[in-house]
Amino acid sequence: MCGMHAMQKVKCHLAPLAGFTSAPFRLLCTRRGADLTYTEMVSAAGLFHGSSPTRQLMETMPGEGPVACQIFGSKPHELAFAAAEATKLNRFVELNLNAGCPMPNIVHEGAGAALIHNPSLVHECLLAMREATTLPLTLKTRPGPRPDKVLLFELLDAAETAGCSGFILHARFTSQMHGGDVHLDLLAELVERAKISVTGNGGVYNPSTARRMAETGVAAIMLGRAALANPWLFSDVRSDEPSEVLEAPSRRMALQNAAFAEHLSLLLQFSAQLARDFPDDHLPSSDGLVSIVSRTHLFRYFNGRPGAAVFRRRLNEIHSVSELLAAVEESFGPDALPPCPAWPEG
Ligand SMILES: Cc1cc2nc3c(=O)[nH]c(=O)nc-3n(C[C@H](O)[C@H](O)[C@H](O)COP(=O)(O)O)c2cc1C
User: Fold this and answer.
1) What values do phi and psi take at 160, rounded to 5?
2) How does pLDDT run across 3-48, given as a tens digit for each residue?
3) Atom of ligand 1 nearest to the CA of 170
């Protein structure tokens, strides 16, 4: 299939990224062309035991496009409970089971990548979720624990026989964590063999890596880290513009400034929404939330600019939105702050 043709047909999704893909960033990506976004992974055990911070991960914002809720766990009864709760909210278009996260705290409870070793437990977990929801159900996983142990087709069988309608492959083995080669050959073989829709994930960071993945025949590609502070990647991967135009520093800087301002404004709206919807929780103030997110996410909009390293260090001393705005202006000039309707007064 010719590359351009492949990209015109393929959907583009935002991957679940714990700590990043809360509602404000998802909305930013939707506005720039993401066809579907995923929540951060939500703990089935957390929901089962009534954890309010876990419920906050399922908040969506007005204006969001289609959102899927990703759930992790390893106990079928907890996963069934979580699937029913997520369905009741009436705000998700799909539920997804995480069988790929390699982080020790997740694997130790038998969830995430630990499930890859046990396709029959994956089947049981998916069946429990299937019976608890009428929403489309998908699995996100990896080809196997390591290159000499491919369990991909057993996992595909588990998903298909449990009634999943989609299969998302992060085409790296667990032993690779989040780096190294992406196994497009396995992705292409999966597309050949699957009776359900396949989404490919891993290592897409520009239009040409997107095209290479699309050429495997997947129905959708899923963008992860490359979308962070770079949400216009969703429209760029479908663009016919040459890379010199897309990557021109002046264009990039204008897009970054605008996305930073919009992201900040959405964070302020989201903070007010959380305070309204979770009145009994001890939530950080909007200043507190913005200070945290500026250190994890927002600083990325200015990466690579002169002064970025000093700016990043300065963020450790920032405790309010006005201090953040002052730091941005002093570090990168007044043009770095386009006017934005939700700026705080004064
Ligand atoms: C910081 C971070 C958080 C992640 N959180 C999740 C998660 O909550 N659920 C999940 O299925 N994968 C998670 N992943 C994996 C990504 O969804 C994706 O599979 C991986 O980053 C590969 O895609 P990429 O190369 O485009 O980044 C996370 C990855 C990173 C780096």
Assistant:
1) -65, -45
2) 456 787 899 999 999 999 999 999 999 999 999 999 999 999 999 9
3) 19
